[in-house]
Structure formats: structure tokens, C-alpha cells
Amino acid sequence: MLEAPGQVSRALRSAPPDQVVEAADRAIRSALGASRTDVFIADYRITGLWPVLDADLSGGSFLACHDAAQRCYSSQQPMTDTDDEGRCRLYLPLSVWGERLGVLLVELPGPPDPDVVERAADIAGELAVVLRAADRETDRYRRVRRRERLSMAAEMQWELLPGRGVSHAAFELAGQLEPAYTVGGDHFDWSVDDDRLTVTVLNGAGIGLSASLLTAVTVNALRNARRSGGSLVEQAELASDTVFYQHRGRRYVATLLLELDTVTGRVRAVDAGSPHLLRVRGGTVTPIDLEQQLPLGMFAEARYDVQEFALEPGDRLFVVSDGVWAADPGDRGAYGERTMARAMRSTRLQPPAEAVGTVMRELHAWHADADLRDDAVVVCLDWRGSAGRGDG
């Protein structure tokens, strides 16, 4: 007999932030009759999933769990496998509003009934919300995510991010930073408010901590204007003035600001010497040409104009920084001019969270898997259309 749903919820809410996984383990064992649970968290580069409870999992067991967990993570669907003794391992995605955190493992004595799978999926959803909140109060889960030490600049950049993905009835959005452990200045930000999605992508200037500090000032100036109700132009102008009066034009930030009307599909844009914007429609990759204006902070009291374009249901937008577009290992030409479009076309059946990873993997392959020479950011936006909201 399954326990009342409220008992698991109460156990999760009452647990200390660093003990949420242990509380979930006890509650799931009691509620579902499980013999074992674990939580696998994706690392910063999304190259693997790593256990929280059983960090010393044996090699064979880890590989068996990891393979099924990766399939669950990629598909965002429950997965099962069975060991030689008939025990069934149930894997469930841990995701919040489209942001993929990891996978919940629930080991059961035998194949689960549909109602057990449904209840386990509900618990995984609750656990994901609690883990996302707990992540602000403890370092435990961030330590699992990092497979090597982050540079100070990278630490700041990851702290600035809104997340790595968000899902909505009208759109799906994801982004990725590289090199994950040493990224300096490239960045992305977004916010969903009523029928408006605002996305900003920064092509950071410089390297290391100084680049990260410049990006932090720019991002927070943009947020300050946006949260005060400022338009795209007001966001760009406040951020530009803030950067200029701090650096007097010696340093500036190329930035793209986008505002999507999630009902109509109209996009308003301010191109401040920006990263590159491309649209994928019907298998064709086309650059969206915007009038480039001054990077933020280049001159005092710079003024900006808005441009507009329309999306059609099924359109996909990619925004890439110079570290992606202009990446040139020395003898193969720029990635953006040679093979990037092919990589983008190959993602047509992948959701944005998978698509950004594909473009990044191809970028690493273009470098023959050597370390990237510049920061790189990829953001992918799918416009589903207003019909996806249930009102079309």
C-alpha cells in the first residue's frame, strides 16, 4: 500500500537543505517499498551523471546505472532495467520548469505497476523542486556537479546564470557555457514574465576574473532595468552607461537583447555589437541580419534602436558567441563559416537542451578535442507557437 502523497512532501519540506536526498531516500523506501534509492546529478559540462548518496558505487554497478540514467536524462522519460536477481531499477528525470538537474533512481523488488511508476514520477517532480531550492542553501550538490575545480571567474559566471533551461507552453529554451570550469566573460540570461520572454547573450571581453567582473556588472545592470519595468532600449542604455562610467570606454561588452512575445511570435531585438543570431527553419540555417549598434559601454550616453522580426511555429533560434562562431584551431577555418550550420541542422529532432550540447561537442571536435581557446556560449530557443499555449 502506497503512503499518502502528503507524507513524502512533508518529509522533503522539513529536511535540512543538505539532507534532502537522505530524507527522500527514507520517504521513498516507506512509500514505495523500495530497497534502495539514489540521486544522480549532471556535471557542469553535462558529460556525466554522478551519485549523491553512493559516491563509492563500484565500477560495474556505476556503469550499469549510469547508462540507464543517461538514457532517462536525455529522453526525459522513465527508464527501467532489471538485475540478475530480478530487482528492478526505475530511473526518473529530475527536472524543474524544463531545467534538467539529474535523475532519481528507485530500486524495487520487482517490475513496478503503473500506479507505482506514476507515484514515483510525482515524487521525482517534488524532489526536483526541493533540490533546486536547497541548492541555494548548501554546497553539497554543487560539489557533486564539479569534476574538477572551477576557476574564480567560472564560479562567478555559473552563479550569475538563471539556470540552464526553461520550458513553457509556447517555447523551450536552453543554454550552455564552455569551457565549463574556466569560462570568463561569455554569458546568457533570461526571464519569463506574463506573455514576454527576455533573453540576453553577452560576448564577454577579456579573460579570467576581470572578464567575469565586467560581465557581472553588465548582467546586473540589465536585470536592474528589466526588473524596474524598463524596455529593451532602457535595459541596453542603463547597462551601457553603467559600464562606460566604470571603465570610460576602455572596456565594453557586445550584447544581444531579445524580447519574444509568446502570444504572437514577434521578436524585438537590440543588437549591441552582438553575438551571432541564426534561425533554423525547415532544415535551412539562415543568419538573421540585424543592424549592429555600439557595444555596451563603448561611449557615454549611447542610444539604441529596436528592430523586429517574426517567428513561425517550429522555428528554432541559435545565439552563439564569437568563441563559437570564430573558433579556428589554426588550419581549418572558422567553425561558424565551415561546419556549424551542419551541426545545427543535425539537431532538428533534439530538444534545445540536447541541441546546445550537440553544437558544443562539434565545436570541441573542430578543435580536435583540445581546450577551447576562447569562451563559448550557445543558446537555443524553440518557438512552438501560440497554439502550444492551449488558446490557439
TrEMBL record:
EC number(s) from the headed UniProt entry: 3.1.3.16
* UniProt xrefs under Gene3D superfamilies: PPM-type phosphatase domain
Q: Which GO terms of the molecular function aspect are on file?
A: protein serine/threonine phosphatase activity
Report the top EC class in one word. hydrolase
Q: Which UniProt keywords apply?
A: Hydrolase
Which InterPro entries does the record cross-reference, listed alphabetically?
Bact_Sigma-Reg, PPM-type-like_dom_sf, PPM-type_phosphatase-like_dom
Query: Pfam families annotated for this entry?
Result: SpoIIE
Q: What is this protein called?
A: PP2C family protein-serine/threonine phosphatase
Q: Which organism is it from?
A: Micromonospora reichwaldensis
